[in-house]
Amino acid sequence: MAVAGFALTFIYDILSSIGFYIAYPGIYASIWEAIYLTFIPLWLPYPPIIHTVTNIIVFAVVGPSIIKAIAALPISTVKKCSS
């Protein structure tokens, strides 16, 4: 689960950096600079690298418990109409 949390969060942060570059092209010189500087905590109070690390922890700690809880839920059956 931690690997999935890392992969999904990393992809999300990269895509949001690209979106930020597209929305505000004057801030960064290139799209690569926007992606690169996303993970360096310069002036951001909450850099995406912290977002990535905390999601790894959450996916590793909470993910398995949620999966077990969902698996324990009773499956509802839907009555089918017979014509």
User: Roughly what percent helix?
Assistant: 55-70%
SS content category: mainly alpha
The outline comes out as elongated
β-strand amount = under 5%
Low-confidence stretches: none
**Helical stretch tally:** 3
Q: What separation lies between the terminal Cα atoms?
A: 45 Å
Please provide the ordered H/E string of secondary-structure elements: HHH
**Beta strands, count:** 0
What composes the largest sheet? none
Break the fold down into its secondary structure elements and pairings:
Layout: H1 2-23, H2 31-38, H3 48-72
At a glance:
With 83 residues, the chain is mainly α. It has 3 helices and no strands. Helix 1 packs across helix 2 and helix 1 crosses helix 3.
Describe the structure.
The protein is built from three helices and no strands. By secondary structure, it is mostly helical. It has one domain. α1 packs across α2 and α1 crosses α3. The mean pLDDT is 79.
What brief labels describe this structure?
83 residues, single chain, mainly alpha
